[in-house]
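Entry for the shared binder. Reason: the reviewer on the internal report wants the predicted structure included alongside the sequence.
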Amino acid sequence: MRLENKVVIITGSCTGIGKAIAERCVDEGAKVLIHGLEHDQGVALAARLGEENAALHIEDITLPGAPERLVEKAKNTFGHLDAIVNNAAMVTSSNIHSTDLAFFRRILEVNTLAPFALIKAALPYLRERHGCVLNIGSVNAWSGEPNLFAYSVSKGALMTLTRNLGDTLHREDGVRVNQINPGWVLTEKEIDRKRAHGLADDWYKALPNVFAPAGRILWPAEIAAAAIYWLADESGPISGQVVDLEQHPFIGRNPPKDTSTIAQSGK
């Protein structure tokens, strides 16, 4: 039990990577606060994990007071708070031509400013427990695809936030802050996005080798397995680190030009 008696808030955990992290946390002995906008999926997940292990909070994380309400619910339900996982994100296609300021601000509010606000709200309690923060970024933080402009910028900003606070909070408050950058992951929302682009539901079964050397893309459970290390005490004093989780080198790679029209997507 690598997370025995730990209490973890996981934003965006009604589906996808967040759901997989919540499930794995409970398997490892933690209590979790599930959060998101998908009410029915959240209720089903909380019921499956059991009321002794999981509570549910449905709310837009960018609303005034939402981070504080998440923290208070975790503390009131389980008695303390050991960790937060900033997983909630908007993954929306855009380029410089389709991105206006209102859209850009919304992406930054969800993907960058909401994690900051939740860290700030949770800090007094994390300090008490010498807890930790795990931010879920994206390999697109390094530059991103042309059609993931605003999303990529928001994840780049999150990466800098992680490195900065991973130093500051560790020295001043004893709170570690780290980040994992998933590559292309087969989530429910990724299937929905590709369906909206007109692809068949089984598009992921025949991907070009340049995108999926392993013959498939990543599963949410594989990201969750990596997340446990950063939430557990076994990661020791490590802080301010960003780890890419992809099946090929992301920086410096020079893939062939005749690739498929199936574009990669972010976390």
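Summary line for the report: Residues 187-217 form one domain.
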